[in-house]
Fold this sequence. Notes:
Radius of gyration: 17 Å
Strand order of the largest sheet: 1-4-7-3-9
Strand content: over 45%
Number of helices: 1
Amino acid sequence: MERLNTVLRTASALADIARQTQTFRFPATTGQAFYLHADAGDVRVQRHAAPEIVITVTLQVPLGWRVAADQDEAGIYFVALRRKLAVSVANATFFVSVPSGVRALLRLDGANLTLENLHLTLELPPDGDLYPLLNP
Length: 136
């Protein structure tokens, strides 16, 4: 039994090394913009009433990612790109909550997108530019 517990503890420790979850919170006001550039992974975007943007990201193989976040008067910017050597093993899940009065711009490279609690007109252009725009 002790051996089984040791194996389970080791497996849990390895899973923690291979996966990392972080939550980012940014105050946001009506008229600002939120920009997300995600390289692959699953992206879930929802609208909410709170005056903040909340991004919870779970990275598989965290060392395989470059993540940057910034904020200025115009908006909030979040970029998560896979490192070239980790493309085949690094994956991520992004859960993003954006206030209703904030414009959301998404640049998704090979990502899956789920939209929740939105009231919008959505255009998917054929050339894959920085759109779709999620209009408040």
